Amino acid sequence: MAWYPGAQKLELQPESDAQPAIIPTQLIFHSIAAPWTPARTYEYWRETNLESHFGLGYDGSLAQYIGTQTRADANYQANRRPDGTGAVSVESASNMDATDPWSPAQVEALIRLGVWVHQQHSIPLRICRTAADPGYGYHRLFPEWSAGGTACPGDARVRQFHDVVFPGIVARATGQTPAPTPPEFDVPYTLGEYTGTTVSLPPNIWTTLTLGRLDLVAGAQSYTATAYLTVKAPVGGVLQGRFYHHRADGSRWDGPIVERATTDGSSFVDFTHAGSISTGETARFEITYAPANATDTAPATITAARARGLYWK
Ligand SMILES: [Zn+2]
User: Fold this and answer.
1) Which pLDDT tens digit goes with each residue over 161-170?
2) What is the pLDDT of residue 167?
3) Where is the N-acetylmuramoyl-L-alanine amidase domain (predicted)?
4) What confidence tier does 312 reach under pLDDT thresholds 50, 70, 90?
5) Are strands 85-92 and 54-56 parallel, antiparallel or unpaired?
6) Residues with Cβ < 8 Å from 253, sequence gap 6 or more?
7) Is the pLDDT of residue 100 over 80?
8) CA 41 to CA 13: how far, in whole Å?
């Protein structure tokens, strides 16, 4: 039996062991006429002798109750035909009348599942032409798929099947459109570096700082970063800082310069940049100091430095 890695496994017994094997040749979409989570649908299937292979929540969460090479009883004669072929079924949360459209998260989850059954079970990328024809369909498409007829999955979702879901499966499976970055992979990495190493800044020279590390952001696509510095220098001087992108061939892209004035005692200054970064580039930070008195040759002194930020790979 096959379990979809994109779904939470909530195995239904005794059906999972007791029901006969199928060769999956179809994927049939349903609405369950209840706004249920996959876990709630699992509870419901445990109380009945019906079940689908998959259950889909409004938020796109998906559970699998039975392996796709085992019969599930949601599509009447399509569950398992005399030749051993059968349909994989997916129930989806809906309103009580099954009149609402699939949510964007449901559409995306159905497209992904549709691509997986194509790859896993070689289900052909077409809409079923007859009740036993391999391909994709929705519950009411053929009377043989329900005992006594059904409106499932509802008019709005039948339209979405034709306009969005099935074309989306075809496009994704044939590589015509890339999969969007799923939200769960959008969690950023954290930049958090500190150094108490003293650094001298001679006047009017750009100095690249090692804020715990030289390459503050590497192997990323975008980032936001701030350098927080504690600086000792006479009041009235100017600190200019900027992030830049360093490339392997030694060339660079310079970010905008940010300017801060030195104050009495220690100065606490910050420099922020947010940007995107190309493959192979790293983000570094550099600073230059201009004393209040142009003839002053004494360096400013950095006594502590922090780098804080977020970046996305
Ligand atoms: Zn149905």
Assistant:
1) 999 999 999 9
2) 95
3) 25-154
4) confident
5) parallel
6) 244, 245, 247, 281
7) yes
8) 14
pLDDT in tens, 41-52: 999 999 998 999
Q: Answer yes or no: are the C-beta atoms of 93 and 58 closer than 8 Å.
A: yes
Instruction: Identify whether the C-beta of residue 52 lies closer than 8 Å to the C-beta of residue 65.
Output: yes
Domains, in order of start, for the chain: 8-183 (3.40.80.10), 188-312 (2.60.120.660)
> How far, in Å, is the centroid of ligand 1 from the Cα of 268?
64
Cα(39) to centroid of ligand 1, in Å? 18
Distance 120 CA to ligand 1 centre (A): 23
Distance 18 CA to ligand 1 centre (A): 23
How many A from CA of 31 to the centre of ligand 1? 6
Q: What angle do CA 195, 311, 225 make, to 5 degrees?
A: 45
In the reported structure, the alpha carbon of residue 146 is separated from the centroid of ligand 1 by a whole-number distance in angstroms of 8
Rounded average pLDDT over 280-309: 94
> What is the per-residue pLDDT for 303?
96
Please provide the average confidence, as pLDDT, over all residues in the chain. Answer: 93
Confidence of residue 184 (pLDDT cuts 50, 70, 90): low
Q: How far is the CA of 76 from the centre of ligand 1 (A)?
A: 10
Distance 244 CA to ligand 1 centre (A): 57
Percent of the chain at pLDDT > 90 equals 84
CB atoms within 5 A of ion ligand 1 belong to 30, 139, 152
Q: How far is the CA of 139 from the centre of ligand 1 (A)?
A: 5
What helix, strand, coil percent values describe the chain, rounded to 5? 20, 35, 45
Ligand 1 centre distance from Cα of residue 155 (Å): 12
Instruction: Give the model's pLDDT for residue 294.
Output: 87
Rounded distance from Cα 122 to ligand 1 centre (Å): 23
**Token code pair at residue 234:** 């006479």
